[in-house]
Design a protein that fits this description.
Protein name: HTH gntR-type domain-containing protein
Number of strands: 2
InterPro entries: GntR_C, TF_FadR/GntR_C, Tscrpt_reg_HTH_GntR, WH-like_DNA-bd_sf, WH_DNA-bd_sf
Domain HTH gntR-type: 20-86
Keywords: DNA-binding, Transcription, Transcription regulation
CATH architecture of the largest domain: Up-down Bundle
Strand content: under 5%
Largest sheet: 2 strands, antiparallel
Pfam family, one: FCD
CATH class of the largest domain: Mainly Alpha
CATH topology of the largest domain: Four Helix Bundle (Hemerythrin (Met), subunit A)
Radius of gyration: 22 Å
Order of helices and strands: HHHEEHHHHHHH
Shape: globular
Length: 233
């Protein structure tokens, strides 16, 4: 009987690609609420409430909340999930990490920033200016998030991009409180203007300097307010 030496090569199964899963939708929605400060430190995030909101079972909600917990956005408890408490030492460490990562990341985006992204940066800056003039904190928060998200989208290293966003988000609850201060809002608007000018020039060195100065001013202002003062007084 002839021996058949032909080997059957099994190709790896290919996962069916889906534009957006329900779990991903819920994850993005809850993360957005955390970014905007819509979920407070004293508020519990309950899977059954979100399931009712999305008219779905608790499983995709649970998966989304566990992902947020794994990324440090939430902490699981016996009674749902809560926002983690951020200490002063945590803030020091987060600012240090961001100073190391963000200037270089922003500079790397200079060569690949598209004209459409430049337009989005200009739009976000104008929105921030109007928010400052009207003392509109919610609009200021939205403009700040949009500006950062736009230049981050141009960063080619996806791991670097997601790491920066995670650390930015972790300090969001604290930062939201300081954005009610007019001087803090002025620092944000001035910083966005300097960064925008540098991005328009597509100058990596100028972007790096502008970002570092922006972050140093923000850090100084935050701790000045924490200690009962104001860095611009």
């Amino acid at each position: 009987m002839a021996q058949n030496d032909d080997k059957v090569v099994k190709l790896p199964r290919r996962t069916t690609l889906k534009p957006t899963t329900l779990t991903e939708t819920i994850y993005q929605e809850v993360r957005g609420r955390l970014q905007r400060g819509e979920i407070g430190a004293d508020q519990r995030v309950l899977d059954y409430e979100i399931a009712e909101e999305f008219d779905c079972t608790r499983m995709p909600v649970r998966q989304a909340l566990l992902r947020l917990a794994n990324e440090g956005y939430l902490i699981g408890t016996t009674r749902g999930f809560v926002v983690p408490t951020i200490t002063t030492e945590d803030i020091h460490e987060i600012f240090e990490i961001r100073r190391l990562l963000e200037p270089a990341a922003a500079a790397s985006a200079a060569a690949v920033l598209t004209s459409a992204q430049e337009s989005e940066l200009k739009k976000a800056y104008q929105q921030a200016r109007k928010a400052y003039e009207k003392r509109d904190v919610e609009q200021m928060i939205a403009a700040n998030i949009e500006f950062r998200s736009t230049w981050l989208a141009a960063v080619q290293n996806s791991r670097l991009r997601s790491t920066i966003m995670r650390f930015v988000d972790h300090a969001q609850q604290i930062r939201l409180g300081t954005l009610t201060n007019p001087n803090t809002q002025k620092i944000v608007v001035d910083g966005m203007r300097s960064l925008l000018e540098a991005f328009v020039e597509r100058d990596p060195k100028l972007i790096k300097v502008a970002m570092l100065e922006f972050m140093l001013n923000a850090e100084q202002q935050y701790f000045a307010l924490l200690n009962g003062g104001d860095a611009r007084d």
